[in-house]
Amino acid sequence: MREKGNGNLKRASKVVAALLLILPLANAQQTRVFREGVNWTQEVAGSLAGAKILRVRVDVGSLKVQGGSQQEISYVIRNRSYSSSEERARREFDSYKISAYVRGDTAYITAEWEGSSPRKFAGDFIVNVPRSMELVKLETDGGSVSTNGVTGRVEAQSGGGSIHLDDIGGNINAETGGGSIDVGNVGAELSLHTGGGSIEIRSAKGKINAESGGGSVVLVSGLQGAVLETGGGSIQVRQCNGTVKVTTGGGSIDLGDIGGSAVIETGGGSIRLSSAKGPVRAETGGGSIELYGVPGARAETAAGGITAKFVAEGGNFSESSLETTAGDITIYLSTNLRMTIRASIELANGHGIHSDFPELHVTTEGGDYGPKTVTAEGSLNGGGPVLKVITQTGDISFRRSK
Question: Is residue 133 in a domain?
C-alpha cells in the first residue's frame, strides 16, 4: 500500500509541476470592462517573471514592445468591441482567449479566437520588457507592429499592417503582407519584406536586404552593403559604405555616396549616382543615366541621355562602356586618367563628337546621300583600360573635369 501511495503522490507532483510551468499568472493579472464612447473596452493588465525570450502571437490587434530598465515583463491589453450591448461585448471578449505565461526562458502572450471572430473588433497589445531581451518574436494577422529599445534580435510579422523598429541591437527579420516598414537606428543585419508598402531605413550598421512588391525604398545611412528591390517604386540611397545592388521594375533610382561597387537596374526610370568607390553597372529600359565620381562604369539605356564623370580611384580606371539607342552622351574626365577611348555615332546625320582632348582623332564616313558615321579613337596619358562610347543617334562630348 505504501508503494502504491508513493506512486500516486509522485504522479500528482509531476502534474502540479507541469501545470505550474504553463499556468497563466492569473494572480498578477487584472481585467475590467467599461464603455468608451460608442464601443466597449476590455482592459487586461498583468506581469510576468523576467525571461530571455518573448513570443507574442495574436489573431487580432496591434503589437507594441518597449524595452527599458525593468527586470520583469509587464503588459496592458485593450480590446474594443463595437457591439451595442455590454452582454454581447462580454461574449466577444470571452471568445478572444488571452494567455500569458512563462515556460523555461521564454515568456508567451497569445490571443486566439474560439470560433469565428466578429466583424468589428480591435485590440492593442502594449508590452514592456527588459532591454536585455535576447529575442522578441511578434506575430499578428493584421495589426501594426512596433518595437524599440531591445539589444537582442527581433522577428516581426504582420498579415498586412505597418511595422516600426528602432533602437534594436540584434539582427532583424520583418515581414508584412502589404503595410509600410519603418526602421530607425539599428545595430545589425536587416531582412525586410513587404507585399506592397514603402520601406524606409534611417541608419543600419549591418548588411541590408529589403524588398517591396511595389512601394518606394529609402536608405538614409548604411555602414555595410545593401540589396534593395521593389516591383515598381522609386529607390533612394543617401549613403552606404559597402556594395549596393538596387532594382526596380520601373521607378527612378537616386543614389548618393556609395563606398563600394554598385549595380543599378530599372525597367524604365531615370538613374542618378553621386559617387562610388567601386565599378558601377547601370541599366534602364528608357530613362536617363547620370553617374558622377566613378572609377569605371557600364551603363546602358534604350532611350535617354548618359552623363558620366570618371575619376581615378586609387590611381586606377577600370574598363567601361556607355551605350544608348537615342540620346546624347557627355563624359567628364580628370586629367590624370590613363585610358584608351573608342567612340562612335552610328546614325550621325546632324550629330557629332566634341572633345577637349587633342589626343582623340575624330573620323567621319558617309553622309551626303546616306547615313553618316562618326568615330573617335585615342589614348590619354599613354593609354590604359578601354572606354567604349556608343550612341545610335545623338551627340558625344568629352570634357575636362573642373
Answer: yes
Alpha-carbon span 217 to 157, nearest angstrom? 19
Can you spell out the DSSP letters for 26-94? GGGEEEEEEEETTEEEEEEEEEE---SEEEEEESS-EEEEEEES-SSEEEEEEEEE--SSHHHHHHHHH
Residues 155 and 170: beta-carbon distance below 8 Å: no
8 A C-beta contact, residue 210 and residue 229: yes
Residue 358, C-beta contacts closer than 8 angstroms, at least 6 positions apart:
none
Give a yes or no: residue 42 inside a domain: yes
Range of the domain at 72: 24-141
> How do residues 286-324 score in pLDDT, each as one tens digit?
999 999 999 999 999 999 999 999 997 665 789 999 999
Burial of 231 (0-12, 13-18, 19+ CB in 10 A): middle
Given a contact cutoff of 8 angstroms between Cβ atoms, the answer to whether 145 and 127 are in contact is: no
Distance CA 284, CA 271 (A): 8
User: Is residue 328 a part of any domain in this protein?
Assistant: no
Beta strands in 95-161 (DSSP E): 96-103, 106-113, 121-130, 135-140, 145-150, 153-158
Please give the backbone phi and psi of residue 92, each rounded to the nearest 5 degrees, phi first.
-65, -45
Amino acid at 219: L
All three cell numbers of 25: 499568472
pLDDT digits (tens, 9 = 90+) for 351-372: 999 999 999 999 999 866 678 8
Angle, CA of 289, 291 and 296, to the nearest 5°: 120
R_g of the chain computed on alpha carbons: 31
pLDDT at 34 over 70: yes
Q: How many domains does the chain have?
A: 1
Is there a domain that residue 72 lies in? yes
d(CA 373, CA 394) in angstroms, rounded, equals 11
